[in-house]
Design goal:
Largest sheet: none
Number of domains: 3
Number of strands: 0
Shape: extended
Helix content: over 70%
Number of helices: 8
Order of helices and strands: HHHHHHHH
Distance between the termini: 58 Å
Radius of gyration: 28 Å
Length: 275
């Protein structure tokens, strides 16, 4: 039986809604269980108390995990139909498409100067982003790595951590502001270059640029990477997932998982302030 697009959409929507409801429910159950463990005594977070609390919600957790796996299988078996975007493409994409048709060296001198000016502006904005990112990452270290700012007075851990977070956020604010400005200016620049490229094509009757064949090893390597971009990316992702699974298995085998659990319990009860 062949399913219609409407039926496929309904199945995907139903699975997505059911998964969302169950995930939200399990989240509430986890929070409730943590609170009940916290209120259970002076040393609440032990393996026994955690195991007992989890046993009461285990069925819902397993049902949710099963539905998530089923949902992934459904979306893989019934993928949504890919629709081509009508208009609305980003200025960056439009400029890239037109740049492939235009040889900048054959453009009128006046238009060429304006196009190069827009490209130089975007280059300066990109260099500025790198510089500000480095500064915003390095400058907070002078505060965070200064032992005098973290005297570790008993009972003051939370305030010291909060002060460190505030300092870091203050230094990140200029990067955030600059990034917003950069995106706006870059979009305006791409729009201007798009109009200039269209004008160059209309006025000069420029023919498409002939792509030169790579003659060096580097050029051949770049061409190979471009032609096989999707398989390479997929292979890299699979390799990362495989490494993650292998490290998880090694951690379980050598007892690292138990150590992480004990450290997490101590962090929750001592550092963050639940204890």
């Amino acid at each position: 039986m062949k399913l219609t697009d409407k039926t496929k959409k309904g199945i995907r929507l139903g699975v997505a809604i059911a998964s969302s409801v169950l995930i939200f429910t399990v989240g509430i159950l986890f929070i409730t269980s943590c609170y009940s463990i916290y209120k259970s005594g002076p040393s609440p977070f032990t393996r026994a108390s955690i195991a007992e609390a989890f046993s009461t919600i285990a069925v819902w957790v397993y049902i949710t995990l099963s539905l998530v796996i089923v949902g992934a299988a459904v979306f893989f078996a019934l993928p949504p139909e890919e629709k081509k975007l009508k208009g609305g493409r980003s200025p960056r994409v439009l400029v890239k498409k037109l740049s492939e048709r235009v040889d900048i060296d054959t453009v009128d001198t006046r238009l060429k100067a304006k196009i190069e000016k827009e490209r130089e502006l975007r280059h300066v904005l990109s260099v500025g982003r790198i510089a500000i990112s480095v500064l915003c990452a390095v400058l907070p270290l002078f505060y965070l790595l200064n032992p005098a700012n973290f005297p570790a007075v008993s009972g003051e851990y939370n305030s010291e951590i909060l002060r460190g977070m505030v300092v870091y956020l203050i230094f990140l604010a200029p990067l955030f502001i600059y990034e917003v400005i950069r995106v706006v200016l870059s979009d305006l620049s791409y729009n201007k270059e798009h109009a200039l490229l269209k004008q160059a094509i209309a006025e000069c009757g420029i023919s498409p640029v002939k792509e030169s064949l790579p003659t060096t090893r580097f050029g051949k390597a770049v061409k190979f990477l471009r032609e096989n971009e999707k398989p390479i990316i997929l292979g890299v992702r699979i390799a990362f997932v495989g490494c993650a699974i292998a490290f998880i298995a090694i951690g379980i085998a050598n007892g690292g998982m138990a150590d992480v659990l004990n450290k997490a319990i101590k962090i929750c009860t001592e550092c963050i302030g639940l204890g």
